[in-house]
Amino acid sequence: MPKLTDRRMLTSRRLLAASGICVLALAVSACGSSASSSHTSGNGAAAAPGPVAATAPATTPAAPATPGAGAGASVQLVAVNSAQLGPIVTDAAGRTLYRFDKDTNKPSATNCTDACAVKWPPATVADKVEVNGVSSALVGSVTRPDGSKQLTLNGWPLYRFAGDSAAGQVNGQGVGGTWFASTPEGKKAQSAGPGSAPAAFPNSSQSSGYSGGNSGSGSGGYSGGY
């Protein structure tokens, strides 16, 4: 029969072993719980929770402006009274329009091309012309050698002058004895005499209503008289 002391020692060892197993089991359980509650990144490291990104408010893009919205029709032929020349015709920008004596009006034909047309740019047109103080019955067009349409008044092709740098100027009047500002009737403007009364023109606009016009072409470059 074992001694009492040996019995007690054996019992103590069994209690210590049982206690160790319990401690180990508790540790494993705690580690498993910790691992399941942690989020890991792709490389196995725990990922710290980042700040929540703020969502930008949606914006509605502005609607594009409609081309030409609110713009009125452009007046192309305007009868005005010049202090120097009396009744003349200008374009929508107030630039004086001229006629050339070496052109013809019956039939309409332009003889100012090449270098001449650089100094005297032709007044070209599209499909219609708005008029103010000018009879629409006198308005037409002529086809130039390059295929463009040039505005005519009473058959005479109309031009601007490169020497006029601002509205209302009439620096092309009488150049070469062949260039003259056009009157509202398509005639040659003359110098206004002293004390001449300003001409009265209707303050209204209308479409000339012409489509196309007389067809003609010039005789090539003009050398001289401009």
Report on this structure:
It is a single chain. By secondary structure, the chain is of the alpha+beta class. The protein is built from 2 helices and 11 strands; from the N terminus they run H-E-E-E-E-E-H-E-E-E-E-E-E. The strands form 4 sheets. A 4-stranded mixed β-sheet has the order 2-1-6-11, with no helix packed on it. Strand 4 (104-105) and strand 5 (108-109) form a beta hairpin. The longest helix has 34 residues, at 4-37. The N and C termini lie far apart (150 Å).
List the helices and strands and how they pair.
Blueprint: H1 4-37, E1 75-82, E2 86-90, E3 98-100, E4 104-105, E5 108-109, H2 115-119, E6 130-132, E7 139-143, E8 149-153, E9 156-157, E10 179-181, E11 206-207
Parallel strand pairs: 1-6
Antiparallel strand pairs: 1-2, 3-10, 4-5, 6-11, 7-8, 8-9
Tell me about the largest β-sheet: 4 strands, mixed
Please write the string of helix (H) and strand (E) elements: HEEEEEHEEEEEE
How many β-strand stretches?
11
User: In percent, how much strand structure appears in the residues?
Assistant: 15-25%
Give me the number of helical elements: 2
Provide the spatial order of strands within the biggest beta sheet. 2-1-6-11
The pLDDT mean sits at: 72
Global morphology: rod-shaped
Please bin the fraction of helical residues: 10-25%
Helix and strand content put the structural class at alpha+beta
The termini sit apart by 150 Å
Identify low-pLDDT runs.
30-48, 54-73, 195-204, 213-224
In angstroms, what is the radius of gyration? Answer: 48 Å
